[in-house]
Amino acid sequence: MLNYAVDRDLLLPYVPFGTELDSFGGQTFVSLVGFRFLRTKVLGVRVPFHRDFDEVNLRFYVRRREGDVTRRGVVFIREIVPRYAIAGIARVVYNENYVCLPMTHRIDEAAAEYRWRVKGNWNRMFVRASGEAAVPCEGSCEQFITEHYWGYAVQRDGGAME
Q1: Cβ atoms of residues 80 and 55 within 8 Å
Q2: Best CA proximity match to 76, nearest among 153, 157, 160
Q3: Strand pairing of 150-154 and 69-81?
Q4: Could you tell me the residue range of the domain that residue 76 belongs to?
Q5: 67 found inside a domain
Q6: Predicted confidence pLDDT, tens digits, the chain (162 residues)
Q7: pTM of the full predicted structure?
């Protein structure tokens, strides 16, 4: 996960109805996240050739107030996967911003790299870990980034899906 502070005005066109940008210390963040889906099932069923796959997504952080409860969540600007069926179903059923692109990955104990090809050019995300794994400190920026449990998407009718 790579996190960047950005001008909040860049994200305003992507904010779903009923949510608002969430910030930490007066800064608005986007994150580039790479991970692997493993042993995936759809409605409890394994789909051949679609169980294990990479995803890279670009997301930002919002909150939605419902009465006295604030739900912190993410909005995906773009989600990249290597399988057409996954991207197509996510676009049609959930109106998510999925695209299918050729992808590779390399992961070991100290580093992770995800690559995807757009118009013949390879892009990559690379991170190297150091130190021991730890739970983010209370009140830290790292805690802010990781504690967004809801997902929101702008729908075709202008509403928001949770």
Answers
A1: yes
A2: 153
A3: parallel
A4: 2-152
A5: yes
A6: 899 999 999 999 999 989 999 999 999 999 999 988 777 766 677 776 666 788 999 999 999 998 999 999 999 999 999 999 888 888 888 888 899 999 999 999 889 999 999 999 999 999 998 888 889 999 999 999 999 999 888 766 665 666
A7: 0.85
Task: Please state the domain count of the chain.
Answer: 1
Strands (E), 14-159: 20-21, 28-37, 41-42, 45-46, 53-66, 69-81, 98-100, 103-107, 111-118, 121-128, 150-154
In a domain, 43, yes or no: yes
Domain assignment present for residue 161? The answer is no
C-alpha–C-alpha distance, residues 162 and 158, integer Å: 13
